[in-house]
Specification:
Shape: elongated
Helix content: 25-40%
Number of strands: 16
Structural class: alpha+beta
Length: 344
């Protein structure tokens, strides 16, 4: 049975053996039949390679995708994330709100401080200015009206002003220089008081007195004088006599006669107003020779403000006023002219 089966299959296998063992027979016998098969295989292989090659380029776009993904960060600022931008905007708005709140608080605090300071100053100014500030300030000027006043100077010993021309051509400047050089005004002088009130409460002047600081011998040099009753001039309403310093200033009439203690009527310095001016005529008695003395003094101004009585001392630019005793006769010494001095 086995043998029979093998015999029946041999003829059917001839074509396979003819093709299969062709390599054993030799190339000369099978070159021509093998070429079409090899070409077919090569064609199939070429087609397969072409197919594979055609399929392979599909991954090639990956580098381009990578390039685009790498370029994405450069294009992100142009299209910001709305959520991140909203967060940044929210933080910015919160910062601005805090700044505005702090500024508003600063303005409110400044207003409160200003109101407190203003109220503080108002409270103090009702009765007196803030601590350390003056209630009333005073300034002074010494002057003579040569149309009616007799200006006499006791010069320093050895003075020879009569041999010199008038200083700047002005007799008043020359007499002032004599005092600066060691002389002293004598007989009489006018003092103009300039009072300024720095509070909201008016000040009322109640009296003016002379407070003598020191008395010493008058200069013993030549006498130089100018002015006199050469015309009309307004007479100071207030007069002080250094020969009786305990007496307050007196009021006088147009003829120079005392009429009563100053002030006979209410005299006020306006509240925080313009400066008030008061002219005071100061006199001394007369003396001759080395017995004459000179007085250094200040003016003591008494005033009330509110319910308090105050004293204000007035001097001449930080130094006491100086006035020496006058002379009985005006025929002594030298008298001024338009160009200089001549013996009296």
């Amino acid at each position: 049975m086995t043998e029979t089966t093998s015999e029946q299959h041999e003829p059917a296998g001839e074509p396979e053996s003819a093709v299969g063992p062709a390599s054993d027979v030799g190339p000369a016998e099978h070159d021509e039949p093998a070429e079409p098969a090899e070409q077919a295989e090569q064609a199939e292989q070429a087609e397969q390679d072409a197919t594979d090659t055609a399929d392979e380029p599909e991954p090639e776009p990956e580098p381009e995708a990578e390039t685009e993904s790498e370029a994405e960060p450069d294009t992100q600022p142009e299209e910001p994330d709305p959520e991140a931008e909203g967060q940044r905007l929210g933080r910015r708005l919160r910062g601005q709100l805090r700044t505005l709140a702090l500024a508003a608080a600063g303005v409110a605090l400044s207003a409160v401080v200003a109101a407190v300071v203003s109220a503080y100053l108002d409270i103090w100014s009702v009765r007196e200015p803030p601590p350390g500030a003056p209630r009333i300030t005073a300034a002074s000027e010494v002057w003579w009206d040569l149309m009616s006043d007799h200006h006499l100077v006791r010069a320093a010993p050895g003075s020879t002003y009569e041999k010199e021309p008038l200083l700047f051509g002005d007799v008043q400047d020359t007499l002032a220089r004599m005092v600066t050089d060691g002389g002293a005004d004598a007989g009489t002088m006018r003092i103009r008081l300039i009072l300024t009130n720095f509070t909201r409460t008016p000040a009322t002047i109640t009296s003016i007195r002379a407070r003598i600081e020191r008395t010493h011998p008058a200069p013993t040099g030549p006498l130089y004088q100018c002015g006199g009753a050469q015309g009309s001039s307004e007479v100071s309403r207030v007069a002080l006599d250094l020969s009786t310093p305990q007496r307050p200033a007196m009021e006088q009439d147009a003829e120079g006669r005392p009429t009563g203690q100053y002030p006979s009527t209410k005299v006020q310095v306006a509240a925080q107003g313009d400066p008030a001016y008061f002219d005071v005529e100061v006199r001394t008695d007369n003396a001759t020779g080395p017995a004459a003395v000179a007085h250094e003094f200040v003016l003591d101004v008494t005033y009330t403000q509110g319910e308090r009585q105050q004293h204000l001392l007035v001097d001449k630019a930080g130094r006491p006023f100086l006035l020496a005793q006058g002379v009985e006769s005006r025929t002594q010494g030298f008298r001024c002219t338009n160009t200089g001095w001549t013996a009296s």
